[in-house]
Amino acid sequence: MSARSTGANPDDASIVVTREGALARVRFNRPASLNAMGFAMGRLWRDVARELTEDDTVGAILIEASGPAFCAGGDVREMATSGADGAAVTETAHVIHDGIRAFVESSVPVVAAVQGAVAGGGLGLMLAADYIVASEGARFVSKYAEIGLTPDLGVSTLLPAAIGQRRALRMLLQDVTIDAATALDWGLVTEVVPSADVAARALAVAESWLTGAMGAYGQAKRLVRAGAERDFAANLADEAATIGARFDTPEAAARIRAFASGKDAR
Predict the structure, then answer these.
(1) Would you say the C-alpha torsion 96, 100, 101, 103 has a positive or negative sign?
(2) pLDDT score at 115
(3) Is 107 exposed, middle or buried, given 0-12, 13-18 or 19+ CB atoms closer than 10 A?
(4) Pairing status of strand 110-114 against strand 131-135
(5) Is pLDDT at 249 greater than 60 in this prediction?
(6) I want to staple 68 with a disulfide (CB 3.0 to 4.6 A). Which of 46, 116, 117, 195 is the partner?
């Protein structure tokens, strides 16, 4: 088990990372600030993302949060009181974006356990996950225009990719708050479960990847994520190369033999 901390108090970790075998758990840990991401926390997010996605011993990642909310986006209060200018905000956005890219572009599947409010950039952090388990009480809102700002943390790309351009524009231009049932209907989240079950269900999803064809899950995630950014021919070439490479792995060979003989491949 390991913990990462920021700020003057080293015991006050804004992001806590724990390892349970091949599972890495990343916990936002600023509940008093609704897990809003400030300058230091943003740097920590990037460093954690890079380290975990470059570690061959990590087979699945679970993103979760302490307290009543998943993430309220950027720490606007810190921005307003720190004396930071627009250049500093841009630099921090780049840093956090590097972390989001690491999670999205990696071949490690990521699940998020989401409760309470998800606002602004919190939407982008949530959508860095490939599978999202939300509580029945979760709420999702933009809030950018309310404070005179524009989308960041991948929201202008990841949100319309998840729910469609018209719905994304509705959220961004009207500051519409949607509930968990609507989020599920729109495709913003993968599952909605009772609040008491969110943590257990997200953990079960991560564990299913680890006990299944772990390498195949990771490559399937990578192909789908990369496919949105490339032309069709490039996607087909990657698919062909990847399935051939997977066919030669011990993991696939054992499962293919079991399937061909009529046995359970698991």
Answers:
(1) positive
(2) 97
(3) middle
(4) parallel
(5) yes
(6) 116
Q: CA 240 to CA 27: how far, in whole Å?
A: 36
d(CA 159, CA 57): 30
Number of C-alpha atoms within 13 angstroms, CB side, residue 122?
29
Task: Read off the pLDDT band of 265 (50, 70, 90).
Answer: low
Among candidates 50, 3, 47, which has minimal Cα distance to 27?
3
- Mean pLDDT value across residues 137-161: 94
Burial of 58-75, coded b for 16+ CB within 10 Å and e otherwise, reads: bbbbbbbbbeebbbbbbb
Residue-wise pLDDT tens digits, 178-209: 999 999 999 999 999 999 999 999 999 999 99
- DSSP one-letter code for 99: H
Task: Output the CA angle 102-34-101, nearest 5 degrees.
Answer: 10
- Answer for the pair 139, 118: CB distance below 8 angstroms, yes or no: yes
Write out the two tokens for 59.
Answer: 């087979």
Q: What are the residues whose beta carbons fall under 8 Å from the beta carbon of 116, sequence distance 6 or more?
A: 34, 67, 68, 69, 70, 135, 137, 138, 139
